[in-house]
User: Fold this.
Amino acid sequence: MAEKIRVIIADDHRMVRKSIIEFLKNESDIEIVGEAADGKETYQEAGVLNPDVIVMDISMPKMNGIEASREITKDFPQIHIVAFSMYADKQIIKKALAAGASGFVPKDSSIDCLIEAIHSAKEGRIYLGGEISKMMEDEVIDNDRIVSIHETESISDMERTVLRMLADKCTVDSISEKLNIPVDDLRKQLVQIMKRFEIKSLSELIEYAMWERITV
Assistant:
């Protein structure tokens, strides 16, 4: 009998974790060996439990899923990561894969997609199902990771400051006041940043800024 795929579920929402666990319990070849509510706990559990696959929520406290994926794949390269997010944005997907994830599954996907992603990760393959695959058609595979064909445009010091303040959960009005920039001008600047990084909404930009906070 083949060994079961050992899985950790990492998500800061308890009901989400428990729902996924309940679904996956029905899979004869998957064993849930642990769960975690933040990135730091996920890293610690990875070291203790040595799972085959971690289903990793991207947006978590203490250490987000991008940072946790990067640290886990660096220190425990035998562990595979399936990124799991409510935001299916191209830049977010690329960031997750660059951090070491072996696949990306939006939270509104069917449980079958997640199961397929877990199996693909265990087999060392990248999983980008359905709409995600279509979204990444202008990307190329390099060293088993997704890499943009075009280099990312650099951002100005002012844009970095704005992104950092968004990551710190400052509102647009408070950023406008602190940087002495008219609100309308700041909103136009944010729209230009979103267009450049192919981000569709301010909420997604805020999430992106939070995940990029190490480099911005």
